[in-house]
Design brief:
The complex is a heterodimer of chains A (245) and B (265).
Chain A: E1 4-15, E2 18-29, E3 33-37, H1 44-51, E4 59-64, E5 67-68, H2 76-82, E6 83-86, H3 98-108, H4 114-127, H5 143-155, E7 161-165, H6 173-188, E8 192-196, H7 200-205, E9 209-214, E10 217-222, H8 224-229, H9 234-244
Parallel strand pairs in A: 3-8, 3-9, 6-7, 7-8
Antiparallel strand pairs in A: 1-2, 1-4, 4-5, 9-10
Helix pairs in contact in A: 3-4, 3-5, 4-5, 5-6
Chain B: H1 2-48, H2 58-79, H3 83-98, H4 104-129, H5 133-141, H6 146-176, H7 188-199, H8 202-232, H9 244-247
Classes of the chains: A alpha/beta (245), B mainly alpha (265).
The complex binds adenosine-5'-diphosphate and magnesium ion.
Chain lengths: 245, 265
């Protein structure tokens, strides 16, 4: 059995007195594609944001290669460079071209030379089919194109794990496919991913681990087979019944 | 009427160089004051938007809190009192209380800069807050520090958005430096007062002075508008492709609101 890249232990998050996550436990190994499903408000985004340290957990631990990411002396910025995130709302830098969006992190965080950063950026932009648009500004792109650039920006940091928070939820239906296509290709290449999604076909066909969340706890988890073909819990069956129809 | 025009000509013939020198001084003080004021404004605005992170050590949060309170006090003090009173207060006050003998030019630069800084601080703060927080998260998510995020992502956009305000401040400064004549700064208004007093041609001299102020402010706003459109750059982009089919689509007329490019992907 290979080592866990990310291990989450008894994770808790409260916003004031509002308990959003409690006792979350799961781990991710090299090459795992984990999907997190569940209704809106069940805490999926908060969980991903805790993993990316955009939120500070109220309790429990997140380990990265066995190291506590909240420990003193642990560099959050170095960690974030290794654990990328793709957002529902793209969050591209509007003052930069597509190419610069994919270069700035490499230059400023990884301290790569301009030439090297440009080469890497172009490599990943080609991968997501956005190489022809390197000189465009984000506002000139469609939603699907923006999201593919956002994926390339994250990939250009050559992360060990990539987190996706509903990457297709803000897209017009005809653009969902182009983004899912890219994500599927990445999964097949062995990229370790944690994906929050409402695309059940993606969860079933692409991921190897499905986590079903309800009211801030993991209600059921297992292989896609376990969850989609043989759900054990009543809640899981209810949730899936609503989505499959 | 002929008398009036004669008066103007007389003022100009005798004191033309003085008016021009006054105008030059006004322009230098307002330009330098606006630039230094912007630097102050950016510094103060940036500090005021540093998030107080619960993960930071206590001493750091306390220090940040105290700094923010002091800066807020500075902004309120200088926005809330007239520059003419500040001029007297600072120039003579420094002399009497602290025995600091500022020369008139230093005092002029100081007063205009510190005033502009107070106004710009609020403008910069607003400019920073107006940038979608998603971009900050996008920057954080690839490992950028708060400082890097500010320098490369937020401030360039905030700067673009507040150029009209910088222009406003410059124009206000060109006019308001006239109050510095209270501490005998030889700006355009000071020149006017001297000339009018010497020749007893108040209305004529005021006409010349108005015309010069108006020329300065109109030129300043035209230059700023030029800078604005320069910074906005081209609305179009070239497809970096060798696919000739892509060019038949008329990429130069591509408008961001129409998603026509999507059609040949
Ligand atoms: N910054 C916040 N402050 C207060 N409550 C929040 C905040 N972010 C999320 N929540 C609450 O946490 C719960 C879970 O939200 P979220 O993680 O976004 O769920 P999901 O992504 O599954 O839709 C919701 O009830 C939401 O209102
Ligand atoms: Mg969410």
């Amino acid at each position: 059995m290979s080592e866990n890249i990310i291990e989450i232990q008894h994770l808790e998050k409260n916003f004031g007195s509002h308990k959003v996550l409690s006792d979350i436990d799961f781990s991710v190994k090299q090459g795992d594609v984990t999907t997190i499903i569940g209704v809106s408000g069940s805490g999926k985004s908060t969980l991903l944001r805790c993993i990316n340290v955009l939120e500070t957990p109220s309790g429990g631990k997140i380990l990265f290669h066995g190291e506590d990411i909240a420990a003193k002396g642990f560099s959050v910025t170095d960690y974030r460079a290794k654990v990328g995130m793709v957002f529902q709302s793209f969050n591209l830098f509007s003052n930069m071209t597509v190419l610069k969006n994919c270069m700035v992190g490499q230059q400023k965080v990884l301290k790569k030379s301009k030439e090297e950063a440009e080469q890497t950026a172009k490599y990943f932009l080609e991968k997501v089919g956005m190489l022809p648009y390197i000189n465009a500004k984000p506002k000139q792109l469609s939603g699907g194109q923006k999201q593919r650039v956002a994926i390339a920006r994250a990939l250009a940091m050559e992360p060990e794990v990539l987190l996706f928070d509903e990457p297709t939820s803000a897209l017009d239906p005809q653009m969902v496919g182009e983004v899912l296509e890219v994500m599927k290709a990445l999964a097949e290449e062995g990229l370790t991913m944690i994906v929050v999604t409402h695309e059940m076909a993606f969860a079933r066909d692409v991921s190897n681990h499905v986590v079903f969340m309800k009211d801030g706890v993991i209600c059921e988890e297992g292989t896609p087979e376990d969850i989609f073909a043989n759900p054990k819990k009543e809640e899981t069956r209810d949730f899936l019944a609503r989505f499959i129809n | 009427m002929a008398e009036f025009i004669d008066g103007i000509i007389k003022c100009w013939q005798q004191y033309g160089p003085s008016y021009l020198e006054g105008a030059r001084n006004t322009l230098i003080i307002s330009l330098v004051g606006t630039i230094i004021g912007c630097v102050i404004g950016f510094a103060v605005g940036v500090v005021q938007t540093i998030p107080s992170d619960k993960g930071d050590p206590v001493w750091k949060r306390i220090l940040l809190g105290i700094t923010k309170v002091i800066l807020k006090g500075y902004v309120e003090l200088f926005r809330g009192t007239p520059m003419i009173v500040q001029s007297v207060f600072i120039y003579y006050g420094a002399r009497m209380v602290f025995n600091i003998h500022m020369d008139i030019w230093s005092a002029a630069f100081f007063i205009v800069s510190i005033n502009t800084g107070a106004y710009m601080a609020e403008t910069v703060r607003g400019g920073i807050l107006s940038i979608d927080p998603g971009q900050t998260e996008g920057a954080k998510s690839i490992g950028m520090t708060h400082l890097q995020t500010m320098l490369y992502v937020i401030l360039p956009q905030a700067f673009r958005n507040i150029i009209p305000q910088i222009g406003n401040n410059l124009i206000i400064n060109i006019k308001d430096t006239s109050v510095l004549s209270v501490i005998s700064v030889t700006d355009l208004f000071f020149t006017h007062k001297s000339v009018a007093g010497a020749l007893y041609l108040y209305f004529e001299s005021a006409t010349i002075t108005m015309a010069i102020y108006l020329t300065l402010t109109v030129t300043a706003s035209a230059l700023l508008r030029l800078l604005e459109s320069k910074l906005d750059g081209d609305d179009n982009y070239d497809l970096a492709t060798t696919d000739t089919l892509a060019h038949t689509s008329g990429m130069y007329t591509y408008h961001p609101k129409e998603k026509t490019l999507e059609d040949f992907k």
